Amino acid sequence: xxxxxxxxxxxxxxxxxxxxxxxxxxxxxxxxxxxxxxxxxxxxxxxxxxxxxxxxxxxxxxxxxxxxxxxxxxxxxxxxxxxxxxxxxxxxxxxxxxxxxxxxxxxxxxxxxxxxxxxxxxxxxxxxxxxxxxxxxxxxxxxxxxxxxxxxxxxxxxxxxxxxxxxxxxxxxxxxxxxxxxxxxxxxxxxxxxxxxxxxxxxxxxxxxxxxxxxxxxxxxxxxxxxxxxx
Length: 231
Hints:
Layout: E1 6-10, H1 15-26, E2 30-37, H2 44-55, E3 60-65, H3 88-93, H4 103-118, E4 122-124, H5 140-153, H6 155-158, E5 165-167, H7 175-184, H8 209-221
Helix pairs in contact: 1-7, 7-8
């Protein structure tokens, strides 16, 4: 592969998307980082995504504004309480209220549009189907369906110039394995942000689903978690 080949990486500033970006970089891609201000509870993840893009040497970091609060229906975009202190069986029992309706489909559609402009074949997304399978838009069959649609729906795909690939390097990895891989690639997880419901000073709550999974991942990886928690 040419070392000047481009890839778009969806970035939330969290562990998974940051590791996916580091993996894309390790393959020699020139990184175009794509983040969204979509009406989520806080902008801390965008500050983290900006730091990650700088740390990993992204060619460009683009933040797109879309207002998913207009629809609501999620604890991340509406006045719905973020669940705290749940065990993994409770997390996996049903689709959680932190699921944002159609979020990955919306994000991947924007990435697809930018890919057409840039002439990019590879879009990386840090979805994971192992540790936390509660989200329907993180499943391998969903990703395969979106990729198929992408190649039917784009000028580049129809003309046979570019076949889009939705790259999911973390899909079968545990959180601990993801963290270990990131450390191997030199990722500084101290610049990442995971919490769904952080304090005003930016400290992570320590009790939402994603905080608990992050803590577990670092514990199982045998690596200190650099995040600062309230609890």
